[in-house]
Structures are given as C-alpha cells and as structure tokens.
Amino acid sequence: MSTLEDFTQVPLRTWAQVLSKVKQAVVFMDDRCAEALHWSGGFAAVLEAGARNVRQFSSFEACGVHEPKAVFVVSSVLKGRTADVIRDVLALSHFQYCVVFTCVPHSAHLFANNVPAELEGTPVFEQFEEKLCEWMGNMNYTAEVRYAPVLFAPVSQQLILAPAFAHLFPLLPPDLRAINAKRPEKKKLGGLQDVDMSALPLELQVEVRSLVSALNHMFESTGTREESFAVGPMSRIIAGELGSLPQAKTRRKTAAKKASIIFVDRTLDLTGAVGHHGENLVEKILTALKPLPGHVTDVQVDVSELTSLQQTPHTHNPLAPGCLAQTQEPAARLLWEAMLTGKQKEAVMEVRRHLVEAASKEKLPIKMSMGRVTPEQLCSYIKLFRSSWESLQGHSGVLQLGLATAQTLRHPSLSRWDACLAFERLLLQALCDSDFPAVLRQLLPLMKPRGAEDSSPSGSRFFEDECGLEELILLLIYLYSLADEAHQDVNEGELDKLERELVGALTLVFTQEKELSPLVQKITGCSNAEELTTERAHSAVEDMFETLRSLSHTRDHLKQLRSVYTASDGVHQATYRPFLKQILEEVFRLDRSECPDMEHMSGGLTELLKTGFSMFMKVSRPHPSDNNLLFLFVLGGVTPSELRLIKETVNSHKPGSQVSQLGLISISMQTQHTKQKKAKDEALRNSLWVKGEESRVKYAIKQCLLHKMFNKGHLYYFIGAT
C-alpha cells in the first residue's frame, strides 16, 4: 500500500532528475518552477548539486566565456516567448552544452503545434535540440531537451501545491458565452455541463494536458492505479482526460497499488474560500503579509528584528525577507505543521513553546511568562538570538515563523478581519428571514467613501474599522455564493434596481481611489487613477456584477449536494455547511450509498458494460471508499481553515487514517498586495483563455480568493479510506 511519504517524496525525486544535470552549469529558471523548488530544498539544493549560479529566466541574462554549460528549467511549451528567451540567452553567451527541462509533455507539444496524432519518439524535442545548437553557434555542440514535471511543491506532510497551474480555474457562465461566440449557431453549447475538452481554447487544452500528465507521473512514480470521480464541469473534463490518457491506461494495467481521486470545482462553494470564519493562524498570515515577489504560495517576513539595524519610515530595508518555507530544520517543520492545521490559539502557543525551547537550548537569558501570548512577547524572545550568530543560524526556521506570527498579530488589517466575520454572521442569519435583495441591501452602508474628518495618510477609502475595497468584493462573493439559499421568491425587478444602486455606489468608491491597487487595476484595466474615468469604472463594476450573478447558480446542476446552508430552526442559528465536508461525509457513509453528484470517470468500456448490465442485474459500481487511499483534488485552491476542517472530518469518520493533501491552486494571480511587472502582466493576460472584460473580472475574483488562500493550485487530499 502507498504511504504518505511515497507521494510527498515524488517532487523531490523529480527535482533529482534536474539536479543530476546542473553540475558546473548556470541554471536559468522561470518563476513557476522556481516556486516549486522553493518548497523542495530551494536554490541551496541546486548549488549543492554543483551549479555555478542560478539566474532568472530572462532575455536580459547572459554568461561569460568561462561558463560553457547552461540548464534551462521552464514550465511552458517550447515555442513563442519561451523559445525567444532561450535564443536570446544563448546568442549573448558562449555555451557549448545546453540542457532544457520542460514541464509540458511531448504529447502536449505535438498538440500545440497542430500535430493531430501521436508520433514515435520525440520529434518536437529533437527539432528543438537542433535549434539550440544553431543558437549556440555550432551544430557540433551538445543539446538535450527533456520532460520533467517539476510542478508540485510539498508545502507540508498534508499539502502539496502546484504553482505552475495557479491560473487554472473552473469555468463560469461568462466563459461559456465566450466559447459559444466562436461556434456555429447549431453547435452552441447549452450549459457548462456540455463543455468538453475539444470545446476549450487551445491554450487551455495545453494546460489541462500538462496537468493530467503531471498527475499521471505522480501515480506512475508510486505505482498507483487510480479510480477517478468528478464533481463539477471543469473537474469532469480533467478527470476524463486522466482516464483516457494512453500512458495512464498502460500504467493502470500493471500498477499494484490502488487509490481513489475526487476532483471538485472550487466554484461550487466560494463561501468557504472567501469567508473569515476560520480560526487559523496561517490563513491570517497569508492575508496580512505581502507575498514574495514572483510567488503565489509564500509571503515576505521582515527579519530586521534579528539585526541591530535602525529602521525609520523613510529608510529602505536592505535585508532579504524571510519566508514560511522552512524545509531543512526539523523543529521548524514540526512548528509549521502545527500552524497550518491547528486553531490559532493553539498555533500561537506552539510558536511560543518552540521559541522558549530554542532559547533554553542555547542557554539564552529568557524570561518566562505565562498567560496570553502577545506579539511583543514573541519579539522579545526572538531578539535574544541576535547576540549569537550560531544560535541564529541554527534556529533560523523557527525564528522566521515566529516573526511571521508576531507581525501578523500586530497587523492593522486584523481588525478588518473581525469586522468582516461579524458581518458575514449577520448576513448568514438574515438569509433565514429575508429575501435576497433585502440581505444584499445591507452592503450598501459599507460602500461609502471616507469623510473629510478622516485624515489618515494611508490613502484608504474607508474608516479604519470598516471594510476596505477588497473586503467589500469578498463580501459580495460570499453573499452571491449563498444567493440560491434564500427561500423567498425574488422579485427580479427589485433585485435589478438594487444592483444598479450597488453598481453606482461601488463606481463612486473606485473613482475616488487616489492610488490604484493591483486588484483595481486588473478590474478596470487602468494603470493609474488618472486613466480611471467614471465611465470605465462603471463598465468594469457592471461586468463584475454579471459574473457575481453567475456564482449563485454554480450548484444548479447538482442533484443532492445543492446547498451549503442550514437555516435556523428557532433553536439553532443558521450555519454554513462546507461543501468539502459534505463530500467526505458522503464518501464515509456506512451504507456506502452512491452519490449522484460524484461521477465515476475511469471506467472506459468496462464501466459502460457494467452500466448496461445494471439494467438487468445488480452490478456494484466503484465507490471512492473502495480503496485505502483517497485523494481530494480541489480545482481552484483551498484555504488553511479548510485543510483543518478536512482533517477533522476524516479523523471523526476514520480515526487513525492517513491524511495528506496535494493542493494545486488554479487561480491566475497573486494576493492584492503583489505588484506585478509589466512583462509578467502581459504574459498573464496572454495565458487567460477567455479574452475580454469577463476574463478581467474573473481574474479579479480569483485574486480576491487568494487574499486568503494558498495561491497555487488544485488540492489533492490523500485520505486513508479503510
């Protein structure tokens, strides 16, 4: 039987293939692969393998005469901008030996080059090898092109993310309209459930093929045969592709181990993604601290308190930031696991305990104190390590996690977190007694610009104790995701009138913005406040509400799991019912009854025959709990609070079972604090498979989700099912 360690070691073994080629080489790596490496040993692992240097994948990089070997690690197809960058670097350098690793399989390269059938060998890679020699200036030089899916980031024992697929996200109705716009009238699709792989744009098909190939590589590396189940239109497409992949069919014939995998669309429950109900420390860290540049899974930790540098508001911090990825230090790994899946109070106490133990081990003069943990207390413990370089170096992982905790606990945005939580609870209760327009109207008072009496220099639009613009959009997503739960009949005319009021109020907020955040820039398409006219702001907000309306119908096609809300019965308050928890409860039902919303996707001809025979005799269909391992794959991301919820649900139904999460965020952006470079913005726009206003709005909604989520991929959740 496969174990948890088998799957968490797959990314490390895949990177080992790359590291075997980097000796005496200069390594060029794009941001997506660099982030996966960040959680798999970091650049230190590349240097320890013998590399001379690690550089950014950019046309502005070059090497000297005494650097004859280059290794490129890229996450994209070897054409277009990727090929141009490689050509530019080789032309400006003096390489004689070049190795290129791509995360896109050869079959996807054939598809991207409009080759309909699978060919023998790897002709696309071989042709690119010839180009490499040509660009190096001598056809007798050595060039290699290899496939290596270095896409997964083992964030913890329970979570693996895939930064390269951060932009992949379930389809929404605006996407369907964009797809239908390019189809003949008689071939237009009636709903998202009718969309198949062939209906998707070319770029998205390449992404899906790359993802499916990476999943197949993971199962092949562990000798596992999977049974796939899908909940949601986009999950159905991906599960179907995995089931029909030729390499996967061959693997399943000989694999000795078995597992089940359930693909779930994130859009079926956005309430859990944007809500502030989770008491989780890591979730608040991801919200409060700025992301690392170029990353979607980690944040910047200010380490100046570990030094004696004197900081003022006008001085630039010369120190490189710390981070959450502490993969080398055993104590830091244990602390990170506790922070990731524990409650905030327990996690903060665990941080203090680790700091006290580290200080005691180094015989530092620590003053013990009991009671409530404060950020000042944590910082006082951390500052003790400044006096000893050996102590600081030996416990740097724990110290960085301690600093991240202290900086989050004293961050001013946490007051907004509590305000949003209180308002979400009010909205939840109001859905019992009022129709949707009446509940939605309660957001109007929050959409007021700050009065003249507020002289805060921050440039914020709202009072400090009220919701900011990002929080307002989160609340709108939260409420529209629950809109179908309101039992009263909705007066469409009243709702339209109210939405026009909301659009007008939100437009005013946008236009009074003095400095546009990355989120507002993406929604409006304007890079600065001078460009943002009232007309452009109004048009952008109208498009946003069109997408919001579609969120209220994402569960309409489901037969059983249609609700994430339990109304008040007069004794108990109304409650939110997490969709992921409902899925797991269905999996672990004692009667093993079949859930009509979980579609089995791995059967092929055998399953079709079983379905036919079931009309005349009792035929047992596959069930997710048939196998000892169960993967829950959430297409669109997961919050740390949901990780804890999943773990608690599994333990309550299957005590002692193995729990592992492999998370792959499919949201194409970073948190709202991230300032994206122009070149990266352009590449990101080109990667969006639905063009136009809808894609910007969808991007903005996904960016808001990442305000609280791990911004990196789909989640697999690995569960002992027996």
From TrEMBL:
Output the InterPro entries linked to this UniProt entry. Answer: Sec1-like, Sec1-like_dom2, Sec1-like_sf
Is the keyword Coiled coil assigned to this protein?
no
> Has keyword Protein transport?
yes
Q: What organism does this protein naturally occur in?
A: Oryzias latipes (Japanese rice fish)
Q: Which family does it belong to?
A: Belongs to the STXBP/unc-18/SEC1 family.
- UniProt keyword annotations, A-Z: Protein transport, Transport
Q: What are its GO biological-process terms?
A: intracellular protein transport; vesicle-mediated transport
Protein name as annotated = Sec1 family domain containing 2
- SUPFAM superfamilies xref list: Sec1/munc18-like (SM) proteins
